[in-house]
Amino acid sequence: xxxxxxxxxxxxxxxxxxxxxxxxxxxxxxxxxxxxxxxxxxxxxxxxxxxxxxxxxxxxxxxxxxxxxxxxxxxxxxxxxxxxxxxxxxxxxxxxxxxxxxxxxxxxxxxxxxxxxxxxxxxxxxxxxxxxxxxxxxxxxxxxxxxxxxxxxxxxxxxxxxxxxxxxxxxxxxxxxxxxxxxxxxxxxxxxxxxxxxxxxxxxxxxxxxxxxxxxxxxxxxxxxxxxxxxxxxxxxxxxxxxxxxxxxxxxxxxxxxxxxxxxxxxxxxxxxxxxxxxxxxxxxxxxxxxxxxxxxxxxxxxxxxxxxxxxxxxxxxxxxxxxxxxxxxxxxxxxxxxxxxxxxxxxxxxxxxxxxxxxxxxxxxxxxxxxxxxxxxxxxxxxxxxxxxxxxxxxxxxxxxxxxxxxxxxxxxxxxxxxxxxxxxxxxxxxxxxxxxxxxxxxxxxxxxxxxxxxxxxxxxxxxxxxxxxxxxxxxxxxxxxxxxxxxxxxxxxxxxxxxxxxxxxxxxxxxxxxxxxxxxxxxxxxxxxxxxxxxxxxxxxxxxxxxxxxxxxxxxxxxxxxxxxxxxxxxxxxxxxxxxxxxxxxxxxxxxxxxxxxxxxxxxxxxxxxxxxxxxxxxxxxxxxxxxxxxxxxxxxxxxxxxxxxxxxxxxxxxxxxxxxxxxxxxxxxxxxxxxxxxxxxxxxxxxxxxxxxxxxxxxxxxxxxxxxxxxxxxxxxxxxxxxxxxxxxxxxxxxxxxxxxxxxxxxxxxxx
Length: 755
Ligand code: GLN
Ligand code: ZN
What we know:
The active site is at residue 695. This protein is an alpha/beta fold. Helix content is 42%, strand content 12%.
């Protein structure tokens, strides 16, 4: 029999029970015992689902109250000394303080887990970081899991990935130097697990799928030499990309198996299978742990069957990666179009698929005929469904005229035509789009959604807020105004709800960080815009002022990156379709007299492929898509874009190729250092580096803003420079917002007078 296993399962609960319990515990309305009970219930339910689906090895250690990387740090005693906690006796409250900060210590940093939207806690490495194994927490969960009577397999973040993912806090220190200190404790941890009866353990080393330096690769063999002698059998987990370039290394490591992701990198199945030693497990992930689509079971089984013949029981089957990244259970969805629902599989359904694959490999396809027929029907239906395929959209993409992605004239000519009507002063001021989402706005939206507020009353409430926003900006004497985005719940959802090809779930939550979950929309089909999405709001806002009003759209890459995307066509095609739908909106805004339009692309950097070798190809279509949003826009229409905090050094030429007339970026927290790249590559168009941080309610001082603005003026041509905050203001309150913008405008006027 081929072992069916998995490295992790969603842990927030089908209806986010853990989130609510954790938040109640933080507020003091739930006791620690109650929280622990909720957690234990979730684990039990998860294991029961896995057992029912036929899993052979239940995952342990995938559950976490906050983050599994933090848990691994705790199990190794590697928590930052600055908190003054004793790792051996760490309480649950202290654990949360590490993640969230306390009165004296800021929280440990977090950042995105590879190219997912899951955020892990970033290990803090110091020259003198020490380690001390503490398996108690894991062993308690192991005992719980064993009580089900089933075999188990704990998952841990591997020692090299753990070190690599962390940040060096001391200058001149190389975190790899901590390895000799970490390894003995890692060994001790494994020995304790072995003593607790653990046979198999999965050690995840996903860094093998990204570009890592030679010295890190060289550390693998000696590291696993040490871990191999601890009495457990080790399977190394890789995912999110191909590790075929390390095939020799992996084949020869003294471990008992390796897991590979054959959804992200299907080609590696043959490469591995051809040379895989018979005495080692090869675990193949052909069920997508990162996306929501039902598998084509017949195809998967046909791919696996020859490998099963060759490797026998040493072929294992699994999801491509931890199911942490998929929504939990499709069955609880009540409102999805049944046709679309039939194409989907969330975590629970993915387990069932694996159960069927296992059965087919063991006893032949005949024994799973019914399931195969259902899978075939779903695949065939999806291929031809009218819901997905829109001939007009296909024709439009196929027949794009040459240079459709180019503005009529180069920037130098456009900007003159824009300045001719805009008549802006030097250092024009603007904001990034959203203004405070007040309690009233949110209540109105909730009431409208529940049907308690009529459409007319909802519209009136939003208009009232827009009018207030415009009035405030005029009072502040800001040059280019925005309407404030009151009508938007979320910058992707707002547009997705109005576009063909998108659908939404009720419970498709995925953990983002700690107790926070996101519910990404699903792009299931060709994207088109049936009717204008923002024009009425923007036109209303423009009617209230003589100053230029900026229309506000979310760019194609961001619309895609923050959604589950269809897997039946290339990403580049999906992106272009969204771009063309947005182009319709741009042209309608223009017609309605909105002649400044901002197209936000905060996700353009985070959507970069994990391997550098694939960057150019991605940037080509991503930037082309962005440009396509402005096809046929008049030269005098000023296109803005906005990007949040990210490194630009390595992709600046691509960003320049987007050819937005104005780009606003988050720079204040880096003391304008991010501008260096723009200067180094002589970025040609207008640029608005953020002059204050919007992430805290703190109002910047005039001196701070002046310091940043002078710094920017030193390196950017004064005719190209805009003044704006770092990002949107929707998470702020009004008092601090007006106070901060007052400072911004005052300092701008002072410096303008010197020019
Ligand atoms: N226009 C959006 C806003 O102001 C931009 C948000 C973002 O960059 N993440 O909220
Ligand atoms: Zn932003």
